[in-house]
Amino acid sequence: MPSKFAMLLDWTIGHLNELKEQGHRFVHVHSETLAALRRQPAPDPHWTSQAAARSSAQQSEPADGAPLPAVSAGAAPDPAQAVQSTLAQAPIQVAGESAGGWELRGAGGTGGGRSREEKAAAFEALRKRVLACVRCRNLAAARRHVVFGAGDIDAALMFVGEAPGMEEDQQGEPFVGAAGQLLTKILQAMGLDRQSVYIGNILKCRPDTPGQSSGNRKPTPSEMQTCVPFLEEQIDLIGPKVLVALGATAVEGLLGKTVGITRLRGHWQTYRGIPLMPTFHPAYLLYNQARTERRKFWEDMLQVMERLQMPISKKQRAYFSAEGPFLTRR
Ligand code: SF4
């Protein structure tokens, strides 16, 4: 009778084969899952007893022929190693693991040579510092939430926006308003989701608008200079392969350039050795729905995908020449 663990492995392999038959080439594995697989859990008693029986019978494969990893005689088998071995034998590549092809999730840097656990701990320590920050007294007094950032801390692709708006301030999440919904659609069009990238802002607190219950304002240079070191720490820890600066303020905060975004967009820049693509802020695309602007934005995203060596379908290539449904309000 196979253990639950062995049955789960069989099911996983079967599922991966089904995905492959459906044409999928990659699966997403969350960085936390990969980290968990690298840990050394206590031996599964079912597995251990099976291994002992297998060892005594000099078997290296189970009776049903499922490609379980071989178990060396006398050694306590390691379920984590077994799962990793199974993933390595998987019929399709696993995003986040070096597979010689496209990789995105979990493909960021190591945060200055740290282990994944050290990196996660450093990120959490940074988050706590930012959440408690009151360097900008007026912003700290007016905010509902500090909007630290969201996504995969091992992401290869990181988006940087300007500052939280009213909805972001209320929810404590970046890009959740109308512009955020558009960004989500754009990510979907790229074959991504919000969990496979990291999204942050130049400013972590909403620029206050005294006397107004709504509306947003651009961060002042002083506010940007005060807050941007937090973003720099985030970027250093994440170690993305590509940065996307959404809008002129993001470019100004990261590069110190005040060149118009219309001139700069589409031209690769470099931030601390990381390729940076300046492009329009999604809010601009909501404001100006001209097809030419949407097309320019999508061309910038295609450049980003190419830089990350992501697969690009014919349909994706053709988006910019058609009415992209993801670049419209509905
Ligand atoms: S905007 Fe940044 S620096 Fe200013 S109070 Fe908020 S977290 Fe602190």
Q: Key terms for this structure?
A:
2 domains; alpha/beta; 14 helices; globular; two-stranded parallel ribbon; 6-stranded mixed sheet
Describe the protein in words:
This protein is α/β, with parallel strands linked by helices. The protein has two domains: 4-95, no CATH class; 116-327, Uracil-DNA glycosylase-like domain (Uracil-DNA Glycosylase, subunit E). It is built from 14 helices and eight strands. Strands 3-5-4-6-8-7 form a six-stranded mixed beta sheet, sandwiched between helices. α5 packs antiparallel against α9 (221-238). Mean pLDDT is 77; it is low at 41-80 and 82-101. Bound molecules: iron/sulfur cluster. Residues 130, 133-136, 139-140, 146, 203-205, 226-227 line the site of iron/sulfur cluster.
